[in-house]
Q: What sequence folds into this?
């Protein structure tokens, strides 16, 4: 059985829309767990009333993304899940999303799978996976590399984000859960999928499965738009900071090939220190 785990904190309208899109899937062979990390907008009460099929777990407001996801994964595994999907609440699933993810999951039962992301306002592809060079610190965006006729099926990638990430249960048995101690919010998904790949689990982006997302609503985009010294500090040191130097250091030490670590760290620090003002 597939279990879908969705961590939430407020933004009830997004959660409703996401869960409604799951109700409209072409197949219903899955169950959903929402981890409500201390929402103050009535999320838990509304979900109990409007989505009784959804199991809601309660956090204390200090879980953030990684610990919230891990709480849901633990419950899913207790229920006997053979696959878990992590999903953000600010996405809309195409009606055939789950069906198309499971189609390839059955063909490649040990693979971790992500999905093609489309801008919810324009329906244009905005994220289709990437291949990363640890040496040059450059990302090769598959949307720029693949020809239109190649944008179907599976394509190998270096890592995947957690918004729509399908994970076989045996991956957790092999490498454990997401690293909530060292990566409480950002980079935990890239770290997890990178570690899984190094342990022999294939990591693919699935161009047949589509998610609608709201790129302008991400925490990183909001922070960068409202540039300030406080925002710069939060960018580099805050738990939700997209350029958090501590998180980046942990990610680099865990995943970068050892001979390249010094160069990778210097490159990465420089990008984070100046990147806030360039975007």
A:
């Amino acid at each position: 059985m597939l279990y879908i785990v969705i961590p939430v904190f407020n933004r009830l309208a997004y959660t409703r829309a996401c869960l409604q899109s799951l109700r409209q899937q072409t197949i219903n062979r899955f169950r959903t767990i929402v981890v409500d990390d201390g929402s103050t907008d009535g999320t838990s009460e509304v979900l109990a009333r409007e989505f009784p099929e959804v199991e809601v777990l309660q956090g204390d407001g200090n879980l953030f993304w990684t610990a919230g996801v891990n709480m849901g994964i633990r419950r899913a595994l207790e229920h006997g899940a053979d696959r878990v999907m992590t999903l953000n609440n600010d996405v809309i699933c195409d009606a055939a999303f789950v069906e198309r993810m499971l189609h390839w999951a059955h063909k490649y039962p040990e693979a971790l799978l992500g999905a093609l992301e489309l801008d919810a306002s324009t329906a244009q592809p905005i994220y289709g996976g990437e291949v990363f060079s640890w040496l040059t610190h450059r990302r090769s965006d598959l949307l720029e590399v693949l020809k239109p006729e190649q944008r179907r099926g599976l394509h190998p990638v270096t890592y995947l984000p957690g918004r729509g990430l399908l994970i076989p249960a045996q991956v957790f048995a092999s490498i454990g859960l997401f690293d909530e101690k060292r990566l409480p919010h950002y980079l935990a998904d890239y770290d997890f999928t990178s570690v899984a790949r190094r342990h022999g689990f294939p990591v693919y982006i699935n161009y047949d499965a589509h998610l609608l997302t709201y790129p302008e609503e991400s925490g990183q985009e909001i922070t960068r738009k409202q540039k300030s010294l406080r925002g710069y500090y939060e960018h580099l040191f805050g738990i939700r900071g997209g350029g958090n130097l501590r998180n980046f250091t942990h990610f680099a030490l865990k995943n970068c090939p050892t001979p390249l670590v010094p160069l990778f760290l210097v490159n990465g620090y420089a990008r984070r220190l100046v990147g806030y003002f360039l975007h």
